[in-house]
Specification:
- The chain is mainly α and about 80 residues long.
- The chain has helices at about 5-20, 20-35, 40-45, 50-55, 55-70.
- It contains five helices and no strands.
- Helix 2 crosses helix 5.
- The longest helix is centred in the first third of the chain and has 15 residues, at about 5-20.
- The protein starts with 5 loop residues before the first helix and ends in a 6-residue tail after the last helix.
Length: about 80
């Protein structure tokens, strides 16, 4: 019998890559367009992060720290 580890590995990789991909995308957008408003597709795709991060103060602080490494945002 062949082990089926590909699907869970892909799921967990995407679960980690999804929130972390906002940093590089924000950096690319800032490099091309300055500090303009992010495009609608970007805010739509990353909208689910708001409620998830809103439930944990340490998690939101860690995420703001991570994004500050990619862009010059001000931590609250």
């Amino acid at each position: 019998m062949k082990p089926r580890h590909f699907i869970p590995a892909l799921f967990f990789s995407l679960l980690i890559a999804y929130p972390l991909s906002l940093g590089p995308l924000t950096w690319l957008h800032g490099k091309r367009h300055g500090h303009d408003e992010p495009p609608r597709w970007m805010t739509t795709i990353y909208a689910p992060l708001g409620p998830v991060l809103g439930h944990s103060q340490p998690l939101i602080r860690a995420y703001i720290w991570y994004l500050s490494k990619w862009t010059p945002i001000e931590a609250q």
